[in-house]
């Protein structure tokens, strides 16, 4: 399988302009015989949604989104979804002009400079999904920082985890080194869930935030097999062997001892103790 990491910048609130850029990028990936193009989080809208004066959300059924996957490769595109009553930070997977799966970001950061809960509602489901290339799961940025979600995705059979992201550097004094955190986190996910990890971060400046890029792909042993440059737009194309996830899971069957009953009992106990 050949994956194209679309490490792009975007213009805040300019859906039409960002769609045009996405179309150009997908055509470029098609020329490289890519099977899938993965865009960063909110690549059609930009991140600082509080600075956009009007509602520019788009429905997942918008024909312009599906049309991107009619250019050759499958496409994972990310946007502010119009869910009628609510808005969601969503990533949708399209193939051959049809919607395959939508993931709505589950954990919306609302601390320091991040104010996502002001502009979007959290999703309510974590599902792996089948594509013609592999069984996959999508985790949007902060979703991947919640240890239970990659585990659930792997238990649901995901062999490839797609992680579209808006990760910035130096937003506040004393802030963590996000690039270093992501390096360790992606290594942990790849090794412990024994899967391919496809991390795609944006670049550019927006509302005082500097997005650092550094998109990459890790194999099920945790090795970085492709990496985009930091701070600049790029299209990085990499070939992966999906079967390697199954090979690794046979070599070291970490995921077989799921103990769902144990997990369920302890989660229910915590719910009864009002920890939710």
Automatic annotation (TrEMBL):
PANTHER family: BETA-UREIDOPROPIONASE (PTHR43674:SF2), NITRILASE C965.09-RELATED (PTHR43674). Residues 1-242 form the CN hydrolase domain. One of its GO terms (molecular function) is N-carbamoylputrescine amidase activity. This is Amidohydrolase. It holds the Pfam family CN_hydrolase. Signal peptide: none annotated. Keywords: Hydrolase. It comes from Allosaccharopolyspora coralli. PROSITE patterns: CN_HYDROLASE. The keyword Cell membrane does not apply. The keyword Hydrolase applies. GO terms for biological process: putrescine biosynthetic process from arginine.
């Amino acid at each position: 399988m050949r994956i194209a990491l679309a490490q792009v910048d975007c213009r805040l609130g300019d859906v039409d302009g960002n769609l045009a850029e996405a179309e150009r990028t997908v055509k470029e990936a098609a020329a490289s015989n890519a099977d899938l193009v993965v865009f960063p989080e909110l690549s059609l809208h930009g991140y600082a949604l509080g600075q956009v004066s009007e509602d520019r959300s788009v429905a997942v059924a918008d024909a312009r989104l599906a049309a991107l996957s009619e250019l050759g490769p499958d496409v994972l595109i990310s946007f502010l979804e119009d869910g009628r009553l609510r808005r969601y930070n969503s990533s949708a997977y399209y193939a051959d002009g049809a919607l395959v799966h939508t993931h709505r970001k589950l954990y919306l950061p609302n601390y320091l400079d991040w104010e996502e809960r002001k502009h979007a509602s959290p999703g309510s489901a974590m599902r792996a999904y089948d594509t013609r290339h592999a069984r996959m799961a999508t985790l949007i940025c902060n979703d991947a920082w919640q240890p239970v979600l990659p585990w659930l995705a792997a238990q649901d059979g995901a062999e490839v985890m797609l992680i579209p992201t808006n990760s910035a550097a130096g937003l506040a004094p004393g802030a963590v080194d996000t690039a270093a955190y992501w390096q360790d986190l992606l290594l942990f996910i790849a090794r412990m869930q024994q899967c391919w990890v496809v991390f795609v971060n944006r670049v550019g400046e927006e509302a005082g935030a500097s997005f650092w890029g550094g998109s990459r792909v890790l194999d099920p042993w945790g090795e970085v097999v492709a990496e985009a440059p930091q701070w600049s737009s790029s299209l990085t194309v990499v070939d992966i062997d999906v079967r390697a996830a199954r090979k690794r899971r046979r070599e070291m069957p970490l995921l077989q001892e799921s103990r769902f009953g144990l997990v369920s009992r302890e989660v229910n106990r915590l719910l009864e103790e009002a920890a939710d």
